[in-house]
């Protein structure tokens, strides 16, 4: 089967996909990346543009010998994989855009990116990582998987946090959505505090070949809040002959 490459979002890391790797690895080779400045690659220099992240992903997969793959991106990772899918369309079979949108500036986000930048500079990396991670869960810090998720987020340096915010703020992919050639699954939690329905709807209605899945009572980390439903969605979609 074609491998599944999973790209985390802002303050994420490859370890946040452990549940998906365990559930899907019986059928697919699941490849979870750690972007520069985050997770296990927190020692690498931070990147400050979505395009730069996309270049890094393409190079990293080439170096790993991964030439044909399905591609999933979460949040900021969804912006990155849109760029990857457009740059190397023949290598990406299916695309999954999860809790993401077409614009880095997020109207309706729990706080503006400018506010996140100001607070991160004032509060430091660890406090920022834990505070923002809490916003991903419907139950905040009380969520069962919050602590493990926050532990991954805490690996990011302040430079990586600020660079990631800059990357999102300077990116816009709305005009290029119609160029995405792959069959694309859009996944959204209906209580997401980061990406409102308007962003999800735009992806769904503008990308030529899309399918939509809305997970009820989930916020920005649906793969951790309801992993059973999330994993079934992925498994079924990747098996479809489209």
TrEMBL record:
Classification via SUPFAM superfamilies: alpha/beta-Hydrolases
Looking at the record, the residues that make up the AB hydrolase-1 domain are: 3-227
Q: Which GO terms describe its molecular function?
A: hydrolase activity
Source domain of life is: Bacteria
Write down the Pfam families for this protein, in alphabetical order. Abhydrolase_1
Can the keyword Hydrolase be found in this entry's annotation?
A: yes
The identity of this protein, by name, is: Hydrolase
């Amino acid at each position: 089967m074609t491998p599944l490459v999973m790209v985390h979002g802002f303050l994420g890391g490859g370890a946040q996909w452990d549940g998906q790797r365990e559930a899907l690895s019986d059928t697919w080779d699941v490849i979870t990346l750690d972007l520069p400045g985050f997770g296990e690659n927190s020692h690498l220099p931070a990147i400050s543009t979505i395009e730069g992240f996309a270049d890094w992903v393409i190079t990293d997969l080439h170096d790993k010998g991964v030439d044909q793959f399905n591609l999933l991106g979460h949040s900021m990772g969804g912006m990155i994989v849109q760029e990857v899918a457009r740059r190397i369309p023949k290598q990406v079979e299916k695309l999954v855009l999860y809790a993401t949108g077409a614009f880095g500036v997020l109207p309706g986000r729990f706080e503006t990116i400018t506010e996140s930048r100001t607070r991160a500079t004032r509060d430091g990396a660890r406090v920022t990582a834990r505070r923002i991670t809490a916003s991903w869960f419907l139950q905040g810090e009380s969520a069962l998987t919050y602590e493990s998720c926050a532990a991954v987020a805490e690996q990011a340096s302040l430079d990586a946090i600020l660079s990631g915010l800059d990357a999102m703020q300077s990116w816009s992919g709305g005009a290029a959505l119609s160029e995405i050639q792959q069959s694309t699954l859009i996944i959204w939690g209906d209580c997401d505090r980061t990406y409102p329905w308007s962003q999800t709807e735009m992806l769904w209605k503008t990308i030529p070949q899309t399918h939509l899945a809305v997970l009820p009572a989930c916020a920005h980390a649906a793969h951790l809040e309801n992993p059973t439903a999330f994993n079934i969605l992925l498994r079924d979609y990747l098996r479809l002959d489209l």
